[in-house]
Design goal:
Blueprint lengths: L2 E7 L3 H12 L4 E4 L11 E4 L2 E4 L5 E2 L7 H10 L5 E3 L3 E7 L2 E6 L2 H11 L4 H27 L2 H10 L1 H7 L4 H8 L3 H7 L15 H10 L4 E4 L4 H12 L4 E3 L4 E7 L2 E7 L4 E9 L3 H8 L2 H6 L2 H5 L8 E8 L3 H4 L5 E5 L4 H10 L7 E5 L1 H4 L3 H4 L4 E8 L18 H21 L7 E7 L1 H8 L30 E3 L9 H16 L3 H4 L3 H6 L1
Parallel strand pairs: 1-2, 1-13, 2-10, 7-15, 13-19
Antiparallel strand pairs: 3-4, 5-9, 6-9, 7-8, 11-12, 12-13, 14-17, 14-18, 15-16, 16-17
Helix pairs in contact: 1-10, 1-20, 3-4, 4-5, 4-9
């Protein structure tokens, strides 16, 4: 069709949640996805009889049915998405031969770490108190700057300046150094930095506090795999006549004067809409999808100079013709590090191309998913992720996916073997059992996710990112909105929340009748 109430670019979590909420308000929404499958980083893909989830490895809080996050998921999926709790140990952290388990629940988390650091009880109590305070105080003020009109947002900012200075404008490393001089403990407490892509000396403490608090009560996995997120939301979008279209890349946002009126697809087809919403991130929205003239009018180029893309990554997808129970694969994730100084090990790694990874993350989706055995009998999978900059793959930029040449394939194979070494060391029962594997690189992220630097987490989560008041759902172009991880910060929960914020910016007070408690929450 040629006209919709809203057209949304991209089908990631932010786009899907925005679309679902607009659909619940009776709007007819079209979601356009470049990839051949919907879901963004929540999508799954199959190869050689195996299935892998590309971006969802665990999600906190949703096992509590009355938690705000679970209520939001139930809202946008009409309660059709089920979850599986991962048990007590959601993360295990390795530094050489030393292992530290992160156990679900505040008391268990503290008690287990005290076994390793018996003299640090006050430190751990203060640490948990600090991350809870950041989530109770800093994040709501930060959100208020984005959801309210500029004048109100500025007033909120001035009222909360001391709070933001304490939690947002300091790095994770600075805050942890004030808590304890124990470098090993600091290394352990910041071992989830891979969830947001920046080590302690570079990341804002707010992103660390958000992630650490999010998982404090344990992790969960979608029953049936991450692809169920898009599948369940799609039904909500379809009810008032909306659609999700794949293989539908957008080339330009159409602007008439200072007002967005629709989009043009790469095949030349134009679709008009009352609202245009970009879930493609700010770099794509201001740097690619708007004409130079439109981008300059709203200062897009100068705004993008104030932020930078996050680091790229490689992911090794492996498959075995044995089920997870037979192999005794754990539900919890493994984080494997060189040493306790995350910043130093990352700096050494980036100094010159090498495969001495500062971090390797190992996840077991086939062990987490309660429906896996039914859907994929006699098979299991392991995902292995490591940071890797786009620049190391830039020589192959512009080559065709799956046809990049022998040198590229040889480089990928060397990376794969290095990652397999980590797997066999920490999951020895997998050795000799892996029957298939393939590696994605930052070029894969560029091709499928449309991130020009292969960035996994959108915009970097440094202190400067959180000082940019222009990063909000509503843009200076009338009827043009943004959603997704760039609005708040990375992660499925944040992207889902950004969808609520974007829908609220469009619907105004009407959002209160769709999202129970929304109006009261923000009024308070």
């Amino acid at each position: 069709d040629s006209h919709y109430d809203a057209v949304i670019i991209g089908s990631g979590m932010g786009s899907l949640s925005t679309a679902a909420l607009l659909s619940k308000a009776g709007k007819r929404v079209l979601v356009l996805e470049k990839h051949y499958t919907a879901g963004g980083f929540t999508h799954s893909y199959t190869r050689k009889g195996y299935e892998w989830d590309v971006g969802v490895h665990y999600i906190g809080e949703v096992h509590k049915r009355l938690s705000p996050l679970r209520l939001l998921f139930d809202l946008v999926t009409d309660g059709k998405l089920e979850w599986s709790y991962m048990g007590d140990t959601y993360d295990s952290v390795f530094f050489g031969e030393e292992r530290y388990d992160f156990l679900a629940g505040e008391e268990q988390f503290m008690a287990n770490l005290l076994r390793h650091f018996p003299g640090e009880k006050d430190t751990l109590k203060n640490y948990i108190k600090l991350i809870k305070s950041a989530n109770r105080l800093a994040i709501p003020f930060y959100v208020s700057q984005k959801i309210f009109p500029d004048a109100v947002g500025k007033m909120a900012s001035s009222l909360s300046d001391s709070i933001l200075a304490k939690y947002v404008r300091r790095t994770t490393g600075e805050v942890l150094a004030d808590l304890t001089g124990n470098k090993k403990l600091r290394g352990v407490l910041t071992a989830q930095w891979g969830n947001y892509g920046l080590p302690p000396a570079q990341s804002s403490f707010m992103i660390h506090a958000a992630v650490a608090h999010h998982y404090l009560d344990g992790g969960n996995f979608p029953a049936g795999g991450a692809s169920q997120i898009a599948r369940t939301i799609e039904k909500v979008i379809q009810k008032p006549g909306g659609k999700i279209l794949v293989n539908a890349p957008v080339s330009q946002i159409l602007v008439n004067g200072s007002r967005a009126i629709g989009v043009r697809l790469e095949n030349g087809h134009e679709i008009l809409a009352d609202r245009v919403i970009s879930g493609a991130g700010y770099f794509n929205t201001f740097g690619k999808l708007l004409s130079t003239e439109s981008a300059e009018k709203v200062g897009g180029g100068s705004k993008l100079k104030t932020v930078r893309p996050s680091i790229g990554h490689v992911c090794l997808y492996t498959g075995m013709k044995h089920d997870a129970e037979e192999l005794k694969l754990p539900m919890g994730n493994l984080w494997v590090y060189q040493d306790y100084d995350h910043d130093a090990s990352l700096a050494r790694f980036l100094e010159k191309p090498n495969l001495d990874f500062p971090l390797v993350y190992i996840s077991f989706p086939s062990a987490k998913d309660p429906l896996w055995k039914t859907n994929h009998p006699g098979r299991s999978t392991i995902d292995v992720i490591a940071p890797m900059p786009y620049a190391w793959f830039e020589k192959w930029k512009g080559t065709e996916w799956n046809k990049r040449g022998d040198e590229y394939e040889e480089y990928k194979e060397s990376i794969s073997q290095k990652l397999l070494e980590k797997v066999y060391k920490h999951v020895p029962q997998a050795e000799g059992k892996i029957s298939y594997y393939e590696l994605s690189t930052p070029l894969s992220t560029e091709h499928f996710g449309n991130y020009s630097r292969g960035e996994l987490y959108g915009i970097d989560h440094n202190v400067g990112r959180f000082e940019q008041n222009w990063m909000k759902p509503q843009t200076q172009i009338e009827n043009l909105y943004v959603t997704g991880q760039d609005i708040l910060f990375c992660g499925v929960a944040s992207a889902l929340s950004s969808g609520v914020m974007t829908a609220a910016s469009i619907l105004g007070s009407e959002i209160g009748s769709i999202v129970p408690g929304f109006s009261n929450h923000f009024r308070s």
